[in-house]
Amino acid sequence: MTTSIKDLTPRQIVAELDQYIIGQHDAKRNVAIALRNRWRRMNSVADMQREITPNNILMIGATGVGKTEIARRLAKIADAPFIKVEASKFTEVGYVGRDVESMVRDLVEQSVNMVRAAKKEAVQVRAQQAVEDAILDILIPPVKPVNGQPHLGFENEKSDPDAELNERTRERFRDKIRSGEMDDRKIDIDVQQTQMPNIGVMGGAVDDLSMMNIQEMLSGMMPKRGKKRKVTIAEARTILLEEEAAKLIDMDEVKEEAIRKAEDAGIIFIDEIDKVASARSGNGGGGPDVSREGVQRDLLPIVEGSAVNTKYGVIHTDHILFIAAGAFHVAKPSDLIPELQGRFPIRVELQSLSEDDFYQILKEPKNALTKQYEAMLQAENVSLNFQDDALRELARIAFEVNQDVENIGARRLQTVLSHLMNDFMFDIPDVIGANAQVVVTKELVGEKLNGLVKNRDLSQFIL
Ligand SMILES: Nc1ncnc2c1ncn2[C@@H]1O[C@H](COP(=O)(O)OP(=O)(O)OP(=O)(O)O)[C@@H](O)[C@H]1O
Ligand SMILES: [Mg+2]
């Protein structure tokens, strides 16, 4: 019935994830099951659909081992609305006791954007046509009245040749507009503008939702003003395309579809959940612990399933997939309040990454860092090659710095690589010109980085 859930099998999902994430098989396997289970729910008998609850997941693993990356990729694969929040932000002053629902509103917002973009894509051709017509009308206004009736005063013999000439000129210009030949020519267009008053937060008495409603209401009351602007045809095309596409899209339909998509396919990633868990035993309580537990209590209804008001309508959170993540170095999952623990039945532990994992991460993923640098230099017509033993050396260095200084997981590869490449990135194209070849050897890596690695004080700051 619904098409908002893609039908990828668990193995297919893992295969997709494998293209971006090295290792972490247990985590991939479990998110794949969770994703497939949503499809299974949508395709089960109607009575059961309401009963089947999602397999919310708790990911446990040190920083930089791929927790966020897995969730983000999963959402991409599923074409699912996705947002990430840090649980700890709700303990900050000013957040306590409210606003936890904002994560659901953000999800809906995301969903609306996705649905709107898809619809825009679907009306693209028609909108482009309309834009072309509009630009043409500005350049060569039609003599033939639009409703097909002849002008008063102009009689048949006289108007016909004129109209014909006009029509022929228009067709000629239509070709020119289409080919982009006239892109630099300036024309006057009417631009719709809504005057938006800027309202500040009123003493914290208004929550997000009422705020949005006020903004919405006011923007509805404000006159939409057409403003004449002189722009090039190329610019006009972009501006008018937005307007024409908007005319062709039914916003009510978008809202409805977006709510449904968020309900059935949405994924909310709650990071740093361990920061709101407190080791309760032996702790006298009070202060920050109270607010942490408060955040957990606030999260509970959302994760358990409740109705949340958004400016696009009411959304039920029962079937949203929640993935919580944390390092859990100090607090343990069992330090979460029991009700919340129960709502994250699937625990997956992510492995610390080995030196060999680092090597793979540098080399294999579709978006591997080395590939990103290659692509950037390709844009300068410079070819970049990393020799295999250079990658091994980079992995070794990153691993070593992680052990000596601080373990930040695969993020270390970014600092190491950016330091290695820094001079090249500056010298290209001024000193190292187009058609050059840069080969990164093990020796080069050693030359650029070994001094730093040996000097702990330096590497603390630079790598
Ligand atoms: N297993 C992996 N395979 C490929 N890339 C990885 C892997 N782990 C981490 N990375 C890379 O390292 C970066 C950081 O990873 P990610 O954001 O997933 O960390 P995290 O586990 O969420 O850490 P934190 O607890 O700090 O949020 C990502 O941009 C990703 O490209
Ligand atoms: Mg993360």
Q: What is the total tally of β strands?
A: 11
The arrangement of helices and strands along the chain is HHHEHEHHEHEHHEHEEEHEHHEHHEHH
User: By CATH's scheme, which homologous superfamily of the largest domain applies?
Assistant: P-loop containing nucleotide triphosphate hydrolases
Global geometry: globular
Uncertain stretches: 201-205, 281-286
**Helix amount:** 40-55%
Beta-strand percentage range = 5-15%
Report how far apart the termini are: 52 Å
Count of helical regions = 17
What is the CATH domain class of the largest domain?
Alpha Beta
**Main sheet specs:** 5 strands, parallel
Question: In order across it, which strands form the biggest sheet?
Answer: 2-5-8-1-9
What does the radius of gyration come to? Answer: 29 Å
Number of domains: 3
The assigned structural class equals alpha/beta
The overall pLDDT average reads: 86
